[in-house]
Design brief:
The complex is a heterodimer of chains A (125) and B (141). Helix content of chain A is 87%, strand content 0%. The radius of gyration of chain A is 17 Å and the shape is globular. The N and C termini of chain A lie far apart (50 Å). With 141 residues, chain B is mainly α. In chain B, helix 2 packs antiparallel against helix 3, helix 2 packs across helix 4 and helix 3 packs antiparallel against helix 4. The N terminus of chain B is likely disordered. Classes of the chains: A mainly alpha (125), B mainly alpha (141).
Chain lengths: 125, 141
Amino acid sequence: MLGVDIVATFIVATLAGMGIGSGGLIVLYLTLVRGTEQLTAQGFNLLFFMFASCSSMIIHLLRRHIFGLAVLIMIVAGLPAAYLGTRLAVLLPPSLGRALFGFFLIGASLSSLLGGKERKRRKKL
Amino acid sequence: MPPSASLSRRHALPDLLFLITLGFLAGFINGLLGTGGGIVLVLLLARCSAKRGAGHIRFPLENRDVYANALAVMLPISVFSATQYAAAGALDLTAFSPFLLPSLAGGIIGGILLDRLRLSRLKALFSLLLFVSGVLLILRR
């Protein structure tokens, strides 16, 4: 089972490095396949994301246009919000955390799918 | 004064508020769900970069640059969130240790592949997978 876990982590880390998305899949794999508790799976995902994005960030810094000031402003605004979010996550019952996560995934996937169609429509115009 | 400079000054405050709101939203979701902040950033930054024709462009980012900027924001926020999860006892470093190398290697390969693959179909498949998984999570008791 450890081998399957490692291969799954590698594939999802590759997706994370491409920016397609990642955390959702790791949390899903842990909660739905391995039966891990929601909060523990979320903590595991944070560790996973830190290492996967840290390594791909080196490539992106060399090849991409990073808006330094904009990124810095968003980080400064995001840190206290992350603190509030984490406090709330600890207080929530696991089933509610799981349901919130499920609704978030549905919203994000619909937005991504419909947003892609809208961009194609605008290109045709 | 060049037109671009006057435009950026005129939009400085709305842009600042927009960035603060975006950062706050991404940080909160990432803290609450342990993931998702990057998705929010990518979706909103991509929209703000896409409206070239309408003159509403805030950040002239290509799609692939949007991902890189979102990662740059989410990396320090995730490190901070992880410290908070650790303080709450929800972070198991020993259990994670076998996954350290695959995470690092996958991240590097993903960063390289970003330039070489057509991502639209893969992204649509990924979105569908997330949708089905979200329904499963809600239905599961």
